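Can you give me the bound-state structure? Components:
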Amino acid sequence: MNLAVSARALTKTFQNGGVHALRGVDLDIRYGEMTLLVGPSGCGKTTLLCVIAGLLDKTDGEVTMLGQRIADQSARDRVAFRRRHVGFVFQQFNLLPALTAAENVAVPLIAAGHKREPAVKQGVELLARLGMAERATALPRELSGGQQQRVALARAVIHQPSLIICDEPTSALDAVTGQQVMQLLTEVSLREDRAVVVVTHDSRIFDFADTIAHMEDGRVERVVPHGAPARRVATPT
Amino acid sequence: MHFIALRMLTGDRAKYLGLIFTIAFASFLLANQVSIFAGIIKRTASQIVDVVDADLWIMDPATEYIDEVKPLKETDLLRVRGVADVAWAVRLFKSLPRITAPDGRFRQAILLGLDDATLIGAPHGKLRLGRLEDLRDPDAILIDYAGYRYFWPDGELELGRTMEMNDRRVKIVGIVDASAPFATFPVVFSRYSQAVLFVGRERNQMSFVLAKAAPGVAPAALAERISQATGLTALTGDAWAWRTMKYYLKNTGIPVNFGITIGIALIVGIVVMGQTFYLFTIENLKQFGALKAIGVADRTLVGMILLQALTVGVIGYSIGMGICAAFFEITKHNLPTRGLVVLPEAFIGVAVVVLAIVIVASLLSIRRVLVLEPAVVFRG
Ligand SMILES: Nc1ncnc2c1ncn2[C@@H]1O[C@H](COP(=O)(O)OP(=O)(O)O)[C@@H](O)[C@H]1O
Ligand SMILES: [Mg+2]
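Here's the bound-state model for the whole set.
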């Protein structure tokens, strides 16, 4: 089967202090699925995401993303590859405070060289699909946490990436809002040709997962099919 | 990405205005102090540059600057006239007599005695009131406007008023806008024959010879030839003005004084401007990190930061220069600051300084952004 991400004996050691954040990770992430990466704080989840996405260099082992060995690419190619093929959702949203919601959504398009106006227009349309039509011209500080994360969701998918990486997307939100965001994430991001990875230690969202990978102390200990019982609507975009 | 860069810049109104204010203030201070410095030094040569009808100044070799003059001998005038290509040469007398108003107020004045026949050296085109020709009347003088206002601060300008110059009666026949002198003395013009009477008896009284080159003859070359032929110092008006200004630069504390102010403005400007911009970028580091993670190329980020730097630089500089121009527009109507104007070189110099500062500051910021691990955006 064609894998979106495949890691073998992947290790990552931080020089300062000799922290072994990843101690030989083996993990497959499949297209068309939502994979949850769960485990206690400090077990290496974020580090693993960063290495997969090419934001951090691996120390040893193998990792391929979307058929590419990121480690073999030049820094410039790596950035371009990420820009085209990866979407990010962060725990702290990381929206640009000076841009409106729609403009924030449009950033990946603009970064890829699209003209500002059509890009922002696309952003408005996507926000409308996320139930944010009225808030498209609001600044991030005028939005609630849940609304900001919806903007971040839109930004993560607008450029049609093949891999979407979410780090604790619901940790800064209350339970109900977290459920809504996960539902929306499912609706706008899941497609046959796309993989979604969500790092979380929020057990209330486990039921959105097709697969759950349990991490502990720098290793993936178990990978369990979960069947996504919470997924009410599966409307591929 | 340009609009994103500009939005990031202007998004935080307070920081943005702070940046602009800092740059505006520092550039104003720099341009202003440099201009005033240049203006004050230029004043030392005011009596030289106001002579517009002669090409050359001839003086005793011992004369270093215009305010301390060793007189020439009468024969020196004839020797200058004898040099080929000298179209004409006339006397000029300069002295510092005391001038007294009827109410007893007195001041030291700069007195220029002009050749009786030609009135060469007269303040052509600078007459505010009266006529040059009236200088031929008995006891006639022209006085500069600032000097006149010292004695009669209020009321209409009035010709025909009498004063005393070293105990001799003189009559004001004209009021001129002479360039402001370095010392704040009134500037007075009279005929040569009369001027020498105002001051003590000396055998040699001719301060300078003013000369004109024949048509088609380069004044500088002629100056050279006069010097060689007569052993006197002969200079073009420009060269003489520079020599006088250099004397003051070398022998007074003025450059040190202004140097300190300008130096402080420069240091404060560099530190505060650079620091403010640097901090601005550092505070936005997380935003740049997010852009890096999303896949914005380093080259694009560099362009964004440079655009931000240039934008605040240009706006701040323009405001600073606007304030500076307004400052001189206002002060030029005050007598003590008359003639102090914006120095174009200062505007250019400050532009270079501001550009250098914002570029250095942005390079430092850029370094921080380039070494930034995009992975930081995953941390709380
Ligand atoms: N830049 C870094 N330098 C040094 N140690 C780090 C760095 N980033 C993470 N670590 C360490 O690596 C381990 C894994 O961190 P992380 O991947 O953030 O865990 P998780 O996301 O599962 O909470 C932790 O012990 C953390 O302190
Ligand atoms: Mg983490």
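A couple of observations. The CA atoms of residues 14 and 209 of chain A lie 30 Å apart. Residues 3-231 of chain A form a domain with the Rossmann fold fold (CATH 3.40.50.300).
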